[in-house]
Amino acid sequence: MEKISAAYAMQWSIDLEKGLRSNKPGRAIEAIVKVGNRLEQWSKEPIHTINVLNMFGLVPGEDRLFANAILLRLADAFRYGDKDVRLCVLKVFRVEARNWSKGVMTKDRVPNYLELIRRVKIVYDKGDVESKALALRLFGCWADIAKDSGDVRYMILLSLRSSHVVEAKASIFAAGCLSELSEDFAMVFLEMLIYLMTSPGTLSTVKRMGVRAFAKMGCSSILAMRAYKIGKMLMMEYSLEFTVEMLISLSKVASKSRLVISEQVDFLISFMSQESTVCMKAMALRCLYFLSMKGILKYLLNADLISTLFRMVNCGELQPASQCAALRILCKIFCCSLPTLPYMEAPENKKLMSIVESAAQSPILSKRLLALRLLVDISLGLRMTGGKSPVDGTSQLPYQVVMLILDQITLLMKPPVLKPCRPHFEVKQECQSLINLVLCMVKKYPNLGYMALDRVRSLVESFVDLCEKDAGERKLDSYADPVATKLVCCMYRFVETCIEILDEASAVTTQIHHIVKLLVKNIHGSSLFSHETCFNYSILLHSHVNKNKESSNWIEHERVILEFTMKMMSNGDYWAAYRTGKRAMCQGSWFVASFTFRKLMNNVQSDACQYWLKSLSLFTQAESAILGLSFPTEGRRLVNNLQIQETWATCYDGALETCVADYSKKFNESYIDICSAIKMLVAAVSTDKTFFFQRWFLALRAKVLNAVVYIFTLLTSDQSNIENVGNGLSKISLRLKRLVQEFDLLATSFIGMDSKSFETISRLALECSILAFCTCFSLHFPHLHTNEILKHSHLILIQDLVERLRYIYDETRTALKRFVTFIGESDSCFHLPLRTRIYRSGCRERETLDVCKFAVCGILRMQEKAKGKEDDVFVSRESKDRLQLLSDILKKWMKLSFQVPKHFFTVRSCSGAELFAFNADTTNGNELSVKPGFHLSLNLCVQLINPPVRLRKLHCILSAKPSTETPETWDPEEAVDLYEKLMLHVSQDVNSSSRKHRRVCGGGYGSVWSFVCFNINETGHQGFSTCLLDVSAFPVGSYKMKWQGCSTVTEGGSYWSPVPLNMGIVFSVKVPPIVSS
């Protein structure tokens, strides 16, 4: 367990003292810098309670004692040290001053702050001018503890009138710091500022510092308004030479008061008139950009502001940086506020649009990209407002914008790019930026996708021909030209992403299919690319085109990419072949993946790699066998054509009949292969968490296949005994429901997982939920299922499926809600814990949704048919039809495309958490024990390992059973139980309790559990809490606590359930020894 800073405080204090006493040159400064870094770390931690201090063996108050010792030593170093030491101490507290509200220098954490002030005051009283200045700046850094000190206030105000520049500037800095925290002091300082700014004897450097101090007057809205009015008056009436600096300060102070912000915006607009200097126009734009970044401008929009900003875009006297600032402000406005923009006349709008279009063709890269970004934002805003916009005459704008961007890409890929005067990375960066803009447009306007793809296809073909011609003239290999290769790769990545967007919008047409085929053909015939690159783009592009798994398309797809794989193998490029096998698994090309890993197994040296490749080979063999069930004849023809019979000797060992018994046999063989793959990974592990995701994912896949085998077995059993078949289906439905929950836990346990992997697992969970629903309701007859507990279980299955389809709008959800009426419940109960959901409707999702719709509608028709019919003859006849429907559903289900999530190939150690428990009863020492009949009171610490995001809270559940027979390894079944309880608690309790945490305990002689909440510190790695676990019913013995956690990662409700990296906490219930008198 990582120690808190307070546990190191004594040693840090000793180290600082040793460093300050050392006679070695520079040793004192080194010690001060080191302790400064440690104080910065300490400031990120909250004030710890007595329970936390007890965990680390600290006496209450010990942390504050040594913190104050360190601060006093630094104050003494400032008092007695030379200039370099004093500067070093000042730098330490300048950093610490960033944490005024919660750092170690807050008033409530420094009980002897008066002593600190006294020691530094001595430097001010007895030192020279430079010493006084350093002391004043230090008081500014100590604003939280110095703001109420009369001595400090007097020193600062006295030094404001100093004739020494360095002292006067230091006093203004200190006064500004105090003004941020103390309103009464700020009022006095503001009056002093008026005198300083208007006094003819005040030096210009001091006046400049005073102007900047106006920005500090934000302690209250009234103070900010008064400071703004005074600053503006000084600026207008006294014609200050520091107008530019005052404009910045006024903008900063205006941002802190809504009372004057509108006035400041109008004030800034006035400086962008023709009479203003270039410098003032540039500064006014800079200030407006500052206000836009604060999110203030969107509430103060008017036609004058927008037209003024448009004029600044092509203002010839402004520098390009200022023109870009105007474009950035407009982008911010149109990105967030188009529906609320003021209406302007059509002629004015056309004029403004022509300005932006002109800027979009600027020779300056940043201006050109910003202008195009602005046009895109305006177009996207039109979509948001349904085409109604204050910018009239823009009905054709989206099309024109896309054409303008594509024209820029065409210019970028003209012949000079082959002999560029610009760096390669700059050319590629511009190309990628332009592509991203086109993708934004296609996402909002899918009807523009075909035009964009066709234009890119034509551009790529001509560019590739041009590159190869140029290489031939120079007698070079074409793909050795880096800029040409990078640009074409950018274009192909654009095509891939564009197809994904169109696929999600159901806008992939036969014309787009044709474009993709031409692009793939072009990449195959070009020497710009290696075999691996050809493979990657072939598999990625084909995977979107051949989504329906038509036999001809499927065979052609597999044949093309298999040929590239064989070429890589023959060239000995095994690492490239491994990467292609990985991509094939992620796209569901199991024949290619199986061939690749079988060939690679004998070309590795280390045992770990050998086990890993054997595992992949067994896994891909299992999945290719399942895929072959859908295409038995085509698969055999593919194997024969490519002469790779030895690779699939086990997959195609004879003619395959498509009967249920053969399906069951093949699925069982695949199940055995995946179990063998898991054993290979277990043999390769060095710790329990090595290949953790991979083993868990394979185990889930094996359980699903085993469930399918069981269903096939029931379908081929004696169907005359319907009751036995129904009981079997009910049992398998419960197993599948548990697997669905396990998929949910898998998806939320790996926070570093990419979005596509999460979508893949969510889809697999949905497919499993469909099976659970079908097996539950295939033989469901309302008059035979009247048990309330059973009805509730059925309701949960329906609710689970509805929740997963929440963001998919089709008749399936409606049918599911209608289905509830057949089990006698209302549809008002759909409020159980969150599940992984389907958020998009790409080709693979639609494939799954089609099966779901077929299953739900088919079973619903059966339920409607059976309504009011209760005779045994009807039940017997209807049962056979229903089992046939289940068989048809299962055959469709098994043809669903199965892919491995990309995260499967992330083999580094996973992120997770460790839980440490200590007995709250300190009389027991380090022993975690409790007397029989008592509750176990615990002090808890959670340690997050490699968290990729910053967490604020972590909810946990701790559970223990009276049984001493607990598994030694992590049990996913038990983890699912805990996760379900925890998610239900979090979803119900997050808004119902304002307490720090709520304890909920199980009772009786079964499992007991308790919920706790950890507040994670600012480092994002550690949190503390307490827990009371009711183990009063436990007999004497040793027990192990299990735990599970979850945390809200985003405001939208995304959860992370960290993998428990320590397997459990052992505690004992025992009778204390009898102490003899």
Automatic annotation (TrEMBL):
GO CC terms: cytoplasm; integrator complex
InterPro entries on file: ARM-type_fold, INTS7, INTS7_C_plant, INTS7_HB, INTS7_N
Pfam families: INTS7_C_plants, INTS7_HB, INTS7_N
UniProt-recorded name of the protein: Integrator complex subunit 7
Integrator complex subunit 7 N-terminal domain segment(s): 66-588
Keyword Cytoplasm among UniProt keywords: yes
Family that this chain belongs to: Belongs to the Integrator subunit 7 family.
Main location class: cytoplasm
Keywords: Cytoplasm, Nucleus
One Gene Ontology term from the biological process aspect of the record: snRNA 3'-end processing
Cellular compartment(s): Cytoplasm; Nucleus
Stretches of the chain forming a coiled coil according to its record: none
Lineage: superkingdom: Eukaryota
Residues covered by the Integrator complex subunit 7 helical bundle domain: 592-714
Domain Integrator complex subunit 7-like C-terminal: 912-1070
